Amino acid sequence: xxxSLTELEQFRQGIxxxxxxxxxxxxxxxxxxxxxxxxxxxxAALNEEIEKQGMQDRVLVKGTGCPGFCERGPIVVIDPxxxxxxxxxxxxxxxxxxxxxxxxxxxxxxxxxxPGKDEKTVREADIPFYKNQERNIIGNxxxxxxxxxxxxxxxxxxxxxxxxxxxxxxxxxxxxxKKSNLRGRGGGGFxxxxxxxxxxxxxxxxxxxxxxxxxxxxxxxMDRAVLEGNPHSILEGLIIGAYAIGAHExxxxxxxxxxxxxxxxxxxxxxxxxxxxxxxxxxxxxxxxKVKVHRGAGAFVCGEETALLLSLEGKPxxxxxxxxxPATRGLWGKPTNIxxxxxxxxxxxxxxxxxxxxxxxxxxxxxxxxxxxxxGKIKNTGLVEVPMGVTLRDIVYKIGDGIPGGKKFKAVQTGxxxxxxxPEEHLDIAxxxxxxxxxxxxxxxxxxxxxxxxxxxxxxxxxxxxxxxxESCGKCSxxxxxxxxxxxxxxxxxxxxxxxxxxxxLEELAMSTGSASLCALGRTAPNPVLSTIRYFRHEYxxxxxxxxxxxxxxxxxxxxxxxxxxxxxxxxxxxxxATDAISGSRGQIHVIDQAKCTRCRSCYDVCPPxxxxxxxFSGESVPEPIPVERRTLVEKSKAI
Amino acid sequence: MDSSVIERIIDKHHGEAGSLIQILLDIQNELRWLPGAAxxxxxxxxxxxxxxxxxxxxxxxxxxxVPKGRHEINLCMGTAxxxxxxxxxxxxxxxxxxxxxxxxxxxxxxxxxxxxCLGCCAIGPVMxxxxxxxxxxxxxRTAALLKKYD
Lengths: 640, 150
Ligand SMILES: Cc1cc2nc3c(=O)[nH]c(=O)nc-3n(C[C@H](O)[C@H](O)[C@H](O)COP(=O)(O)O)c2cc1C
Ligand code: FES
Prior knowledge:
- With 640 residues, chain A is of the alpha/beta class.
- In chain B, a hairpin with a 2-residue loop joins strand 3 (127-129) and strand 4 (132-134).
- Helix content of chain B is 46%, strand content 12%.
- Chains A and B meet through helix 2, strand 13, strand 17, helix 18 and helix 24 of A and helix 2, helix 4, helix 5, helix 6 and helix 7 of B.
- The site of FE2/S2 (inorganic) cluster has 12 residues of chain B, from helix 5.
């Protein structure tokens, strides 16, 4: 138990002095992405090898949070030299220990390679992916073992809490947050300080603070990385908020699909309690606060704050009309303040560095940094944290390194199911709350999905509407029925059954669903439809009028055909066809049986580009198969 | 069904009606589904009407009212995986297993479900079978992978 400010600082000094100044620290990302690509095996192998080579006294191996460069995982960072190894495999481990750890030599092939083959980058911070970011929040992930509170304390953790408890009145804290201009990172972008003020001033003795860690956006994992990688930063923010608002109980609402986040948050709470950073009389200040974890049970709509509150009470999460806002009538009818994970994680930084520091990042009404989950058709998939106001082009090309496979960029979808698609012509807009809204998209919680020429925009709209139709709670009819009708029309269009007038009907349905729905799920549901119609109307028209999918993506509108002139009867497509729809043999030109073909595109993908024998057809019928008697391959040289 | 398991879980949450979802999640995790008898026990112990329990278990996707197969396939249908062709993977899994999402086959071999973002979009399209992640899926390889399970 730490009982005062002095004790906290002494304790911190104790942790720092225990660190071996010459010690080597090997950090391995143990986030979801790297674990999926085998980080667990790397950690085990490192420990084994280090012991085998007798270095266990000098080297510390840690599984850490996700630093964001998921594309090149598993990631290993070796300190104090900040050597960053990428795409490490278990077979590399022996060399890492004997060469790098023992002899201080670099292993070239594991370093980041620049565009020129010889340009190798050693330090993490110099890799272009990181260099163009401003990593106030996720920058610490790789330095922290999330299961170890001492790691957080060593990086000045909980100093903001101490400052607040001993040097600031609650009103001052609220004022500082107001001055910082921090806006909610969960999607709505509401000014956090104003919300805190409302909850603080609401009458009542019992108040609650809540972390919204339901992260339902299908294709985004920013909150997850902070929950899993640096849970104490969220808890510290939450305790500060509780002090400012006057709450003594809080909840972290985590979706059960995030088992590692649940585990790490649970451990963090227990450790903070043991240290006297949570519970009664925190740090001897007289302030009491306790936190519980609540698991969400798999309903997107429960991320909406009024639904989340009902779910916390053990009921089905169906949103209710606001006002009254949670700030006056929240959990069990008491004043409640709900903020997103990333919003809370910003609080300790603002308290420690001041509102002015925070205001130096960002643009007009959007201050600070924002974490985006940059995914889809992009070379560098990962989490990127940038100051608000950088251009989309910089994110896609400087940080993301552009589109893989030499394909052409088509659009970026931001904001999750409530967001919109931004085409090439708007790539130079600044990414902040207002600019995104101007082009029909939103900031949302930070999903950023890059799409290339192979992505069909009608299908993207169908995808999101499908998702929302499944997730609509069904309480209000505009959302329930409106989404169902939009889903039906979009499915028809992508399957070649679209009719003239469908686009107009979609627009009308979108408008009425958007204006008449009870909660923001329905109110923002039109966005994916309207933004794709706005910028990609021609794609809708091609589907409806010509039964053609310009991106060759809608399966029902695409057929595959093997060009008898180009086929070399190499058997590749035939062997890779899972439904045995291709006939032929060595020396016999291959032919696709259109009736058996499931249009899985495997043949098209495996046919070597220099043959290019598999052709795609959309909007026109495939040629008749070549007659059986002409299928025997005549060797080209002989034929001449 | 072992009723002491259910009792232990309910006791852990002090039998509070407000913990209904947490209790059901614990039972689901323990038994991998929610048998009718378990729901009746919960209803009685927490003094919550069966209708509310039904409402809750059908509202939230985490709950299953049927037993799960030996291998649970969770295919990611998150946006990133979608634009990288998850639909074609789904169709291939459906063809090979004969299952639609949410179903389990008669000999309890596979259960198929879809999820939204497993947090490893870099290796998408990706699925999780028995908690192991299989990434960079293409339809034909997916079919081959599934044939390895028994
Ligand atoms: C359908 C729907 C889903 C939402 N999901 C989330 C979510 O997963 N995480 C989140 O922080 N906010 C989510 N929100 C926004 C919350 O209602 C709320 O605005 C937010 O938690 C407030 O925190 P902030 O001010 O820090 O952003 C969602 C809103 C809607 C309408
Ligand atoms: S969308 Fe599939 S892992 Fe993220």
